[in-house]
Amino acid sequence: MLQIKNLTKVFPTGTVALNNVSFEVHDGEYLAVIGLSGSGKSTLLRCINRLIDPTSGEVIWNEHNITSASGAELRRMRRQIGMIFQHFNLVKRSSVMTNVLSGRLGYVHPVWSLFGRFSAADRQRAMAALERVGIADKADNRADQLSGGQQQRVGIARALMQEPQLLLADEPVASLDPVLSHSILRYLELLNQQDGITVLCSLHFLDLVHRYATRVVGLKGGELVFDGLPSELTPEKFKEVYGEEAEMVQVAPPHAA
Amino acid sequence: MPPENKPPSSPWFPALLSLFIPGSGQFILKERSRGFVLFLTVIILLSLIAWTRAFVLLVPMVFLFFWSARDAYRLAKGRQPGWGAALLLAGLVLYGTAIVVTEVRPTRLITGLPNVQPYLRSLFNPDLFEQPTEEITGVAPIMVPCVDPLPAPNREASTDHILIPEAPCTEVGNLLHITGEGFAPNESGQMQWIDPLGTPRRATLDGQVVVFTADENGRFETALTVPQAVPLTAQPAPGETLTHAVRAVQSIPSGRLQPTQTLSLVWEKIGETIALAFLATVMGVIFAVPVSFLAARNLMGGNAVTLAIYNIVRAILNIIRSIETLMWAIIFAVWVGLGPFAGTLALWFHTVAALAKLYSEAIESIDPGPIEAIRATGANWPQMVVYAVLPQILPTFTSFTLYRFDINVRLSTVIGLVSDAGLGFLVVQWVRLNRFSAMATAIIAIIIVVAVLDLASGWLRERIIQGKPIISSKNPVVRAAIKLMIVVAFLATFAWSWQVAKINLVELVTGAPKGLALAREFATPDLFTRPTESRAISTPLTVPCGAAESTIPADPDITLSVDCGDPGDPVVITGTNLPPNRTVSIRWVMPDGAFLRVKSNCCDTDGDGNVTLDAAINPIMVVEEGQTEPGRVEITYEEIVGGWQVTETVRTVIRLSIVTLLMALLATTIGALFAIPLSFLAARNIMGDSPIGRTTYYGLRTAFNIARSIEPLILVLVAATWVGAGPFAGVLALALNNIPNLGKLFSESIEEIDPGPVEAVTASGATRMQSLVYAIVPQIIPPFLAFIIYQWDINIRMSTVIGFVGGGGIGQQFRIWVSLNQYGAAATAILAIVIMVWTMDYLSAKARERLV
Question: Looking at CA atoms only, how far is residue B763 from chain A in angstroms?
Fold first, then answer.
């Protein structure tokens, strides 16, 4: 279980990105985080694995306080929490295989790994992860030779290498076209349902939220303004999160592919 | 079993072949380029080993042969082997030879350290201001020895600053107490003893120099030992005495601090440095703009004639650019004489070529869309240029011009190494005179001048690129006034620069014959020659008639119209059966071997090998008393005794070109090796926001910028004292310049990496080292390699001139040849440099292409 308690983040520039945000995520949930650009979604996700240090508040992960952890302890917690990114964040010049293996860095020997040494087991695990996302044949390609959708699958495979219990997805489909969006989100759904991985995913499109999420939290100006089921997200509530002028937009449904 | 019976599919056959001829196995396996590269590498490395005689390097070579065999074997087995081990081995041999050739002796870095200490110390103690001092002296006569009666001293005592000895006379070796009054209060001073001849010396007490300090009333008391102050030969007679004197000297500061002479000289040369750079840039722009239009493919590609002009202009520009400015300075110095003018010409010449190339590329890259659009509105050609072409090229032109101005400032700080202009001249002079503080002043001036002008042009460039107005005021009157001021300031600077650079266009004309002679020599470099031997034929000539006659017979091919005569008598000298159409010398030769040319620049044989010369008998031919043999008339000529071969010059040039290349290689490698770790410490995103991180970042960046502003040519002066003149000093100087240069470029490219992968790897629980290796290193390899290649290109050019001031390589020999007036040889060196620079530019352009 992930507990977020009174989380506040003020950037050195004075921007309040998160303001006293509290909620809980139960194991096995597929939680969507919605809100406008700049509403604090990315900051929230990055405070959970401490890519950003919160100004105050706590993040408790399975009884362990992430916010107070440091060094090896923090890294041990991080390796249980996978993350995928809007811009995929692959090392473009490295091979797909190397990118996927780099998801294992939290487990392997900190010195031997510097020379590119990975155990045969890890390599098999990486091939398995690539097969799972359907791009095993691209293992030896350079990452920048892949299309956007394929790159995001490499990102998922990299996160799988961590054998995560929680997966943070920071607008994983915002850089992809609608058809690919569904295929990526279906992979996350699969991981959520088959492997029981809790998913925390920030999303832009409401129909995607309705289709995949089991629960929704809404952020506006750094504050939590909605916490409920997708079905409770009425057009009125939607306008509350996104502002008066927002309109609900449809993204092509999966069968359109 | 003969090998041809073996099926080619057996992996052992190509392996065996490659063991003996590396690359051959790969070749027959259809890996043609792999085999060729391998073969060529082995040949080059073997020749380098043979040349340097560093036979220990044959050990890695043997491994390379085995690698070649293994590679062929693996290729035959259908595998795709890499190059790793071969690169390592070849690198080992290459660097091994480079170290031998450039005489790198790391121990000298330590042993020579005491030599550079004065330089380093003086950098913190520049010669800037001095305190004028005023001397306060008091004198009192004293008689030695004491006699009775004591005569009056022949020396006056001072009246305003009074010295009172305890007695009017004393004896040598005695202790003498002295009181002083009316001196500067609370200031110390020295006591002096003045002998009867008036020569002062330091007064001592028990072997210690006597120093006093006056109290607040200007009084003091002191004591000294009376010295034996008269030469023993001039001792006073018994009963007589001599007038000595004691003197107290206080040296007290007075008036305001004044700049030293060093500083005023430096100040003057700062002006000269800026003037040279300014003038060369302005003149460069004026000439480069029209030339750039001729060198733009999109303007000249129309028909065959213009295309030919384009190609010729391009080629000339490339040749001019591949010869360093300093080389041009030496060449122009031959033409117009040493001085700022030659330096300005060289800077200008190089600037025209460099700017014309940059401008023409800017013209080539203009967008044809606006031209089309303006044309479509019905505009005429000038309107089109003003509205569609100029707006597109002006910002780039200005930016390139400012960039070139920066380069010219740097260059004019070193142009003084070969002429007497600019700050570099002072540095060289003061290094030679061991005046370290003065030298430090000049070097600090260089750093400041370069930094200030860099900042100024950087500010201007940014404004232009961002399209911000340079004049911020909106008031039209103020704007007009400021514009007028800028124009006036520009013209005034130009006029002043013209004055300072001692531009004397007349010298271009009066020096033209020398320049033309030089050009002719350069058009005919010393490449090939046929070995010759000197031959002589001679016949005796008795002067006057009746003097001793020769016992040595005459050669049949030389005849004279007379057998004997008096000085001044006419004589016709005829030579036959000589090589046709050849210059021969005809000379009078005395029996002791002394000779005198009959006529200078004489004489050419005709097509049949005959030569005739009317001459008058020279007085040296007179047979003097005691001589038994008369003088002779001799014709000497060179006879070709062998086939064509390359000259000694060519051999020297090839050898030195290799040395130069290896110098550049070593310097680039050392520079990169040191710059890589430093660049991480100088990258903002790596160092973070902690106080230590920020301090390291700012400290290193500042150090980089300061160190970068000192040209390698100045550094080599220091390096030559450190490790001794020669290629090692050149390598050291280049490396010392490359470390901050590459450090800056590297750290900037680290700052530009995509932070995404770092974030992703960190999120997976990786340590800092792991994220460095997996997320940062793969991203920085391409820019790092690109910058190393860029530095390598610069180093090649630099190492051709670093020898001018003790850095070894081809530049050193070039300068020697020019100073010996051996312009043909110098031309050969230039030819080699052009070829070398072009080849390396081509190779690095290819390498860069593969990186992208």
Answer: 6
Contacts of A76 in chain B (CB under 8 A): 765
Give the residue on B whose Cα is nearest the Cα of A71: B767
Average pLDDT of span B331-339: 85
Q: Residue B775's closest chain A neighbor by CA?
A: A91
- pTM for this entry: 0.76
pLDDT at position B5 is 45
A157 and A168 assigned to the same domain: no
Over the stretch A173-230, which tens digit does the pLDDT of each residue have?
888 888 888 888 988 999 999 999 999 999 877 788 888 999 999 999 899 999 999 8
CB-CB neighbours of B304 under 10 Å: 7
Tell me whether residues B764 and A88 touch, CB distance under 8 A.
no
Assess whether A45 and A116 both reside in one domain: no
Q: Does B774 touch chain A (CB under 8 A)?
A: yes
Of A83, A85, A105, the CB nearest to B766: A105
Determine, for residues A105 and B774 on separate chains, whether the beta-carbon distance falls below 8 Å: yes
Residue A86 lies in a domain: no
Cβ separation of A76 and B765 shorter than 8 Å? yes
Q: Are B631 and B589 in contact (CB under 8 A)?
A: yes
Q: Are residues A168 and A194 in the same domain?
A: yes
Based on the fold, state whether residues B554 and B509 are members of the same structural domain: no
Residue type, B540: P
pLDDT at position B330 is 87
Is A85's CB within 8 Å of B756's CB?
Answer: yes
Q: How close B690 comes to chain A (CA, Å)?
A: 14
Q: Which residue in this structure is represented by tokens 């009666």? A: B149
Does the residue A76 lie in any domain? Answer: yes
How many distinct structural domains can be found in chain A? 2
Residues of A with Cβ-Cβ distance to B765 under 8 angstroms: 75-79, 105-107, 162
State whether residue B769 sits within 8 Å of chain A by CB: yes
Q: Does A105 touch chain B (CB under 8 A)?
A: yes
- Average pLDDT score over residue span A138-156: 90
Residues A38 and A65 in one domain: yes
H runs (alpha helix) in chain A: 41-48, 71-78, 96-101, 120-132, 148-160, 178-194, 206-212, 235-242
Which tens digits make up the pLDDT trace of B289-312? 989 988 888 777 777 888 899 999
Same domain, B608 and B724: no
Q: What is the domain count for chain B?
A: 5
**Residue A256 falls inside a structural domain:** no
**Domain containing residue A239: CATH number:** 3.40.50.300
With 60 as the cut, is the pLDDT of residue B252 above it?
Answer: yes
pLDDT band, very low/low/confident/very high, at A249 (cuts 50, 70, 90): low
Question: Quick one: DSSP state of residue B745?
Answer: H
Of residues A91, A113, A168, nearest to B779 (C-beta): A91
Determine the Cα–Cα distance for residues B499 and B66; give it in Å rounded to an integer.
68
Q: Which residue has the higher pLDDT, B515 or B409?
A: B409
Which chain B residues are within 8 Å of A82, Cβ to Cβ?
Answer: 763-764
Q: Tell me the two tokens of residue B376.
A: 């479509």
Domain range holding B307? 261-517
Give the pLDDT band (50/70/90) at residue B431: confident
**Residues of B whose CB is below 8 A from A159:** 764
B601, pLDDT greater than 70: no
Q: What's the CA gap between A72 and B444, in Å, rounded?
A: 49
Query: How many angstroms separate the first and last alpha carbons of chain B?
Result: 49
Whether residue A110 is found in the same domain as residue A228: no
What tens digit of pLDDT does each residue of B120-130 get?
888 888 878 88
Rounded distance, CA B289 to CA B559, Å?
Answer: 66
Chain B residues whose CB is inside 8 A of the A161 CB are 764
Whole-number pLDDT of residue B206: 84
How many CA atoms, within 13 angstroms, populate the side-chain half-sphere of residue B422?
32
Assess whether A10 and A127 both reside in one domain.
Answer: no
Residue contact B764–A161, C-beta within 8 A: yes
Helix B261-294 to helix B436-465 angle (10° resolution) is 40
Cβ–Cβ under 8 Å, residues B275 and B169: no
Measure CB to CB from residue B761 to each of A87, A105, A110 and give the nearest one: A105
For residue B609, the domain's CATH number is 2.60.40
